[in-house]
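Dear colleague,

Following up on Tuesday's group meeting, I ran the structure prediction for the two-component complex that the binding team flagged. I've pasted the input sequences exactly as they went in, so you can double-check that nothing got truncated or mislabelled along the way. The structure tokens for the whole assembly follow below. Feel free to forward this to whoever is handling the docking comparison.

Inputs:
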Amino acid sequence: MTVIDRVDTAATPSPPDVSLRPASAVRLRFVGDRGDYWRLMIRGGVLQAITLGIYRFWLFTDMRRFLWASTEVEGETLEYTGTAVELLIGFLMAIGILVPVYALLFVASLELGILSILSGVVAFVVLAGFGQYAVYRARRYRLTRTVFRGLRLHQAGSAVRYAVRAMLWWVPIAMTLGLASPWATANLERYKMRNTFYGSLGGSFAGSGGRLFGRTILVWLLVVSPLVVALAAAVRTIDWVAVAEALEDEDTLNLIVALGIDEPLTRGLGLLIPGVMWAVIAGAILYPAYQAIVMRWWLGGLRLGGTAVASDLRMRDYYGAYLRYLLYVALFSIAFSIVAGAIGGLGYVALRGEIDFAHASLLRDGLLAGSGLIAYVIYIVGVSTIYQVAVKMRLWQAAAESVLISGIAALDHVQAGEATSSAVGEGLADALGTGAI
Amino acid sequence: MTTSGTGIFYDGLTSDRRKVAVEIGGDAIEVRAGDGALLARWRFADISPLAAPAGVLRIGLANAKAAARLEIHDRALAAALLAHAKSSDRTGLTDRRTRAKVVAYSAAAIATLVGGAIWGVPLIADRIAPHLPVALEMRLGAAVDTQVRQALGASTGGKPLECGAGDSQRAVAARAALAKLVAALEAAAELPLPLRTLVVRRADVNAITLPGGRIYVFDRLLAEAHSVDEVAGVLGHEIGHVAHRDGTKSVLETAGLSLLFGMLLGDFTGGGAVIIAARTVLQTAYSRTAEAAADEFGARLMYKVGGDPQALGAFLLRISGTAAVMPHFLLDHPAAQERADAIAKIAQPSPMGPLLSPPEWEALKIICTEG
């Protein structure tokens, strides 16, 4: 986002005089223009589709430049200095790392002789480990590309250690059906923030796992526990011996009949299916609340030297964003159907003379498949663009505007710190799908 | 035109915020503290405008290690500064050029990658496959075999998947007939790995070859065949897949396609459909090439062992009558007529005597009628 060309027309706010700063907390401001972001994202979506995704490095860079520059601390905005070419190079290097890894995993799966379950688990663990490694490296890249008041942020610590730590946490999380996850989150955040620096000023994380647990346990009880109970009840109810015997029958019809009259089985499924449906519906309804709770807790734990962050994030802002998204998608879908129907109808009328639509031919099938594909891509890109603006940016804005910083004087005389790092981690995160804004 | 004003300056060494006097000189901008001390002198040529919120001009030195920044909120001064700094992007022109370049280079990259997918991937798979150890293909075959047997075994109505496994006289005779037929073809084919051919209970007129030389002939195919040459023709075609290492090639081609469509291209929301479409079209094209090559191999093999190479073509035409009509670009085999014509061109009939005696042929045909 180059806003230089708009200097002449835009308002010219003055930064507040530091000497007159109130002793109380300072609120973050979000100063971005939503129209600018819409333009950025629509253009980016179109170019992504045209370039089959290659444009994403430029789009992500534009997004970050916008979001960083829109986030203002005491009259001074953040600045994102990363470039798209760095991301592209990082991605290509990540491919260079991942292709041999994939090849090795494939050969290993053959050499181990167990193509089915075990090698899948090994591959999952290896790639998940890479994913966590990438998360940490990507965070380092983004921090070193963030400038505030003439100084860069940076991140120390080891990505390998972080990945090991993150993966070790999976064991208790899995064993407690997710109940341990608040402590995992707190522990990983502590590692990240302890290694985060603004110039020479070190960060820390004050959020506690216990507190996050206390705030999210209701969500867990409403979403996960009914599922667990239903699953346990179903497992106890179903007569597994009878089911196993029924499954022995090769004839599908007999099998269906046998399972249909298996009363414990139907009763078990009668418990399980409502449990799953409840979990899905409650999960979808409570997801924004959960996101808001975690974000508020996370923001409230951030510390940088003597600076402390508090957040008064409201759930209704998050719900508002999602509801608006649903509304926009509904409107977009109606508009899309009308336009696509009109184009399809006109195309049919125009080409009726040339193509025999009643009979299969290469031309007809190719045309139908091709236009169907294009319509699908346009629709999905449209929905995703709406999501980026209506949800992603709104959530960013709501989170930023909820932040209250106390002790901001600690940021006044910080010395410069370390230099930059490469974008390989970003590339890995991108290739493995663990990237974020 | 304004040549001086005020700004906010960060020297890149500390986070101290300084209110400064800014003066535009001949070829540089000078930044002075309140007491007149010179803090920085930046040549216009070195200045680059940076991301900033609307209404603020933020500049720094291009390629500098420290992130020194000057911010100007006075729009007249900002405009004057930009007028001097020629390298700056006042109209967004550079941005637009960059985007145009990205699109152009992406188009070139897509063209190259699609070309690579159409010609490069099968070519590379062709060259590499013969050099990969046979043992690797055997292991791959063993793994695939487990899954295929599970899939096939689900619809045998309780009977064993494999036909002719019993000890009855008929089973022994049927096995011997199959072994004789396969042995004749295998000897002539000079394969890099041993064949393992089985007849299985399956109600499709088909035969499949797995990596590692495993061939499964479906019993319905035996039932529909009018002569031993038709079955031998099918076996010759399947042996062609083994000889060409098509199992290994297909793994290499799939890996190559995953790299091109999935890793390098198509990573955007909605890209999944594009990837599936591209891969389906390309993979079926690879497959059609491999099938045509296997037909050719089979026909030559039949000629060598003295069978009728044309029998496969006739058989294909007879059984294709009921097949569903699919667009050509989605077929993984060439159309039956196309295949029969191609086979007819390759080899003329050269009967040297039947591959199996009538009693042997009868024994083979009923291999699945008993457990």
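DSSP finds eleven helices and ten strands in chain B.

Cheers,
M.
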